[in-house]
Amino acid sequence: STISIGITPSKDMNIGLSTKDNVKISYLDESGNVIKTKDKTWSGYLNDDQKNKYGNGIEKPGTYLNELKAGVRYTTTVNSPSVGSNVLDRFEDVAKVKVVVKVGDLTQEVILDNTAYEKPEEPEEKLFDVDASFTKSTISIGITPSKDMNIGLLTKDNIKISYLDESCNVIKTKDKTWSGYLNDEQKNKYGNGAEKPGTYSNELKAGVRYTTTVNAPGVGSNVLNRFEDVAKVKVVVKVANLTQEIVLDNNAK
Predict the structure, then answer these.
(1) Among 2, 134, 25, which Cα is nearest to 77's?
(2) 79: helix, strand or coil
(3) Which phi and psi (to 5°) does residue 91 adopt?
(4) How far apart are CA 63 and CA 52, in angstroms?
(5) What is the pLDDT of residue 110?
(6) What pTM does this model have?
(7) Backbone dihedral region of 33: left (phi > 0), alpha (psi from -120 to 50 degrees) or beta?
(8) Which tens digit of pLDDT belongs to each residue from 64-85?
(9) End-to-end alpha-carbon separation of the chain, Å?
């Protein structure tokens, strides 16, 4: 919730408006873009241990000072939720702090990483779990959705199970157009696309395991004897704009 910067000049400095001397403190995002800069025009942006304020530009004895002393530490602090006044809530975007000191024709720049900074990660919504059993004669895939799904033809929701060879070429894909390609433990069938109550259903329930199996010598119906070529199984689940993919190796191969 806080970023504090300490600056200790190695020589006496004046940061008045009419001088070339200056201390600028910039708060940067991860791409190096400046979110906000504090400099001598920012009243009282530097403070010493006695809580004297520096940086108004125009000398105001007893209120703001511009004379920085060598060896004295001056600090400035910003607190969440704002990076200084009149700034939108950008505190969490601060990844680095850049300090630039100019004295006459000399310039020194130091960039400090925000060690407390963690790039926010987009939460990945888990759509399903998958398990597999491979033998020399059977491949069984179990799919457990994490949310209720409809795999009807008119929806964007879909579960595709692809059988791949060693080069990841698709031998055959099972999807919702493959009648009854998914089954629950009560042997109800899912995946015809068009809802057929009592025969095929498209409503998959969260937390329920659905299975599909292929047996040698064919990878599903109307397929040549390619079972022995299956090296991997890829399961892709799409729900609206979300997609999750899992590839399982055929450990029995």
Answers:
(1) 2
(2) strand
(3) -55, -45
(4) 8
(5) 95
(6) 0.52
(7) beta
(8) 888 899 999 999 988 776 665 5
(9) 54
